[in-house]
Amino acid sequence: MGITTKQLAQLCGVSRTTIHRALHDTGRINPETKAMILRMAKEYDYQPDMLARGLVKGKTYNIGVIVLGVDNRYFSQVLDSILYEANEKSYSVNINIHGKNKDVEKEQVLRLVSYRVDGIILSSVNKGEEYAKFLKGLNIPVVTIDNRIDKGIPFVGIDNEKISEKATNSIIK
User: Fold this and answer.
1) Least packed by Cβ within 10 Å: which of 43, 49, 60, 97?
2) What is the DSSP string of 117-170?
3) Closest Cα partner for 49 from 94, 2, 84?
């Protein structure tokens, strides 16, 4: 495990505010001081404390994803894209598989909420007004994929009717 910002500040002979400015590229800081801090941070394997950062910012930098499985090419590609985008924004992804089990899916949603994820991407087998009300009451963003649950819950998917129509018309032509 690397050193803390407090230890890094002591090593560099600067304040923690100066360390913060160097590591996060904010505020005024002497370029030589910044270069020295970044060099020392690398040398002593400084890693940000995501738990502490989350407490300060009110975020966990973690997204929950629940899908029916990964053996389906569609879901493996969706997960690959989610992982890529999350990584680009320094988020981790907690992947769960419900295997088309409605009860397991609901348990996984509640577990992710208890982990304080910043949001959930859900391919649901549950539906109906009661389930929509449950999801809306979670007080975290939920986006559904593959299966629309309710107009009040954001949905990302493919218009299968339109695609089928285009494919059929292309074949006929």
Assistant:
1) 43
2) -SEEEE--S--SHHHHHHHHTTSS-EEEESS---TTS-EE---HHHHHHHHHHH
3) 2
